[in-house]
Every structure is written in C-alpha cells, then in structure tokens.
C-alpha cells in the first residue's frame, strides 16, 4: 500500500538531525513493512496529480495556520476534498488535522488559552494516552460528518473520525522526546512561555503511547475503520 505524505511544513534542522525527515518519522510511526511512501512538499507548491497517485494520504504538521493566507492552502483544501470524494483513507496530524476539518467545512482558530507543548494526557475513545503536542491553533467547529473520538483538558477536539474517510489527530504521535527537545531548543524561545517549556522538559523522560497510536493509524489506512 502506497502512502502519500503531503508535507505542509519544514522541520527545523535540529529535529531532522535527531529524528530524520518527514518520510522517516511517519514510516517509523506507522511501523508497517507493507507500506511504501512518497512525499510531496505541498508547502513548496509540489502537489500530486490527484488522489489516484497514492492508496492513502497523510498530511503533516506545519508552522503555518490553516486560516492564514498562503499559496498552498487553497489547492491543498481542494485536494483534501478530492481525496475524500475518492474514498481513499486520509490521516491528518496537527496542522493536517486542522486543514482537513477546515477544508470540509469546520473552523480552525488560534486558541486564546495559549500553547500545548510536550507530553499531554488524552482521552482516546475512553482510554488514557500520553502523546506529545506542539500547537496553539485548534479545531473549534466540527465539519459535518466528523465525530470527536479524542480530547484533552486543553484541546476538546483532539481526534476526529470521518467514517470510512479520514482519521485526524491534533497531537504528534510521530514526535518522541528527541523531537520535543529539539523544538524546545530551537523554536520555543520568545514564543512558548517559559513555565510551559519547563514542564515539557520535565516530561521528556516519561513513556508515551506513540506505538499504540501509530498502530491505530496504520489500521485505519488498511481498513478505513477505528476497530
């Protein structure tokens, strides 16, 4: 099964050094020998010809806001709608979670409650899971057909399921402690409050549920279902 990765942003060099590029991070997250991958840097206006270029699609995180005026946003939204219409499975992570919701009629906003950084506790279908976050924007209005299947105290709409079409998640199951450490070192200064940075550093050594979430996303790619 070929997974098309739609790269919506550029990872900082420190993260690439620690974790590899987007293809490596997502292939490790999914941990499936049955998948092959091709990445299109949509943030640089590199797009596939259409949904038929892959069997399933994954949209990455990004420093950009889904609601911002960037050249790649409108064609990416149209591609999302085309993928949805094609019935190919679609997964979104962080920005990907947000842009899918927006493209299908939902609302994304800069959350006035500030940032979520580092490991957080999520309720995923009634199960507690520890996953890493790095965001301020949130999906605030669900599009038609979206069902909330995950949340946290900070982020109400942390995971959404579009039956038979898409599964999207606000935190980053591809980010491990090395990823968060790299972001804290290179991206947080002057942006993320120091108290949040301190808490995130204190949580770097804690275990996470990345492998479990990665397996669930892989299962969705194969079956287009949650179970």
Automatic annotation (TrEMBL):
Residues 52-180 form the Glutamine amidotransferase domain. Its EC number is 6.3.5.2. CDD domains: GATase1_1. Gene3D superfamilies: 3.40.50.880. GO terms for cellular component: cytosol. GO terms for molecular function: GMP synthase (glutamine-hydrolyzing) activity. InterPro entries: ChyE-like (IPR044992), Class_I_gatase-like (IPR029062), GATASE (IPR017926). Keywords: Ligase. Pfam families: GATase. It comes from the Bacteria. This is GMP synthase. It comes from Planktotalea frisia. The lineage of its organism: Bacteria, Pseudomonadati, Pseudomonadota, Alphaproteobacteria, Rhodobacterales.
């Amino acid at each position: 099964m070929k997974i098309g990765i739609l790269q919506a942003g550029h990872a900082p060099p420190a993260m690439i050094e620690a974790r590899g590029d987007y293809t490596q991070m997502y292939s490790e997250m999914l941990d499936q020998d049955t998948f092959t991958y091709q990445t299109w840097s949509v943030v640089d206006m590199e797009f596939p010809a259409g949904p038929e270029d892959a069997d399933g699609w994954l949209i990455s995180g990004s420093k950009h806001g889904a609601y911002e005026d960037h050249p790649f946003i409108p064609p990416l939204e149209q591609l999302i709608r085309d993928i949805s219409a094609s019935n190919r499975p679609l997964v979104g992570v962080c920005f990907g979670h947000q842009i899918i919701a927006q493209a299908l009629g939902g609302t994304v906003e800069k959350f006035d409650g500030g940032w979520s950084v580092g490991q957080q506790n999520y309720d995923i279908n009634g199960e507690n899971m520890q996953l890493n976050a790095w965001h301020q924007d949130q999906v605030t209005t669900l599009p038609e057909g979206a069902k909330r299947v995950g949340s946290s105290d900070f982020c109400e709409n942390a995971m959404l399921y579009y039956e038979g079409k898409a599964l999207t998640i606000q935190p980053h199951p591809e980010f491990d402690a090395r990823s968060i450490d790299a972001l804290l070192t290179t991206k947080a200064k002057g942006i993320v409050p120091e108290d949040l940075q301190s808490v995130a550093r204190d949580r770097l050594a804690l275990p996470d549920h990345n492998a479990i979430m990665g397996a669930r996303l892989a299962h969705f790619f194969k079956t287009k279902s949650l179970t």
